[in-house]
Amino acid sequence: MPNANLMLFLAEALVYVASMIGLLHLRARLGLGVFVAALGVMHFIETYLAAVFYVQLPFGVISPGSAVLFSGKLMMILLLYVKEDAATVRQPIYGLLAGNFLTVALSLLLRRHDTVAIVPGRVADIAFIDEMGWLMVWGTTLLYFDSLIIILLYEKLGRWFRRFVTIRFLICGVVVLTFDQLGFYAALHFVNGAPTDVFWGGWMAKMLAAPFYAIAIGFYLNASRHTFLAISDRPLGDIFNDPPFASATRICCRVPVTIP
């Protein structure tokens, strides 16, 4: 069964990356809001699966919500930055933060109701909503910092790997997903008492997801003949000039993509 789960894991990642890249590619026709909405609407299922849904893979126990969906979301945010700018990237991140804080606030009010059981034995699990709300807030807060770090790192790597976009995406994914795994596991351990096997299995799965998504995105950028603006000599701190972060200033020449 672990091998069957691994094949399903790869199939889920393929469906995710193909669908999200397709929506981003069609943003001129459909509007960027379609991509952003698709990115945000899956946040609940990502958090839910990461909290309670785990499968056995040959290298450990993992959750598709964390290893497939969240890893893909982070790489899609970096792709959105590459195709657009940091001002655009802020929109889904702020939207998720606002929505998750609203979820927690409303759940605190909902528990004040005197409810009526319409279907025998079926009642709303407000405690579960509370738990998921706080996990989503923590996850989105981590995503905010993940996005800052991944953009800074991507720009920094451009000084050495300017023409090798796949390598840049890969390094960014490995570094930031490791940071995120540490942060989110801390919350899972605190809320659900998750064992250390969950941390190591999830980390290994994310390390597998990072090259998969990096290669897929690299092929897409190459196939779409995307060109990159060269990196400026201004310090990386200038990304924060338009709080909380803004597009790194770039010069006007174009540099072709090379897939390693």
Structure characterization notes:
The chain is mostly helical. The chain has one domain. 70% of the residues lie in helices and 7% in strands. It is built from nine helices and four strands; from the N terminus they run ααααββαααααββ. The protein has helices at residues 2-25, 27-30, 32-41, 43-52, 64-83, 86-110, 126-157, 165-192, 196-223, and strands at residues 55-57, 60-62, 227-231, 250-256. The strands form two sheets. It has a two-stranded antiparallel ribbon with strand order 1-2. Strand 1 (55-57) and strand 2 form a beta hairpin. Helix 5 crosses helix 7 (126-157) and helix 7 (126-157) runs antiparallel to helix 8. The radius of gyration is 19 Å and the shape is globular. It starts with a helix and ends with a strand.
Defining key terms:
two-stranded antiparallel sheet; 260 residues
What secondary-structure arrangement, pairings included, does this model have?
Blueprint: H1 2-25, H2 27-30, H3 32-41, H4 43-52, E1 55-57, E2 60-62, H5 64-83, H6 86-110, H7 126-157, H8 165-192, H9 196-223, E3 227-231, E4 250-256
Antiparallel strand pairs: 1-2, 3-4
Helix pairs in contact: 1-5, 1-9, 3-6, 4-5, 4-7, 5-6, 5-7, 5-9, 6-7, 7-8, 8-9
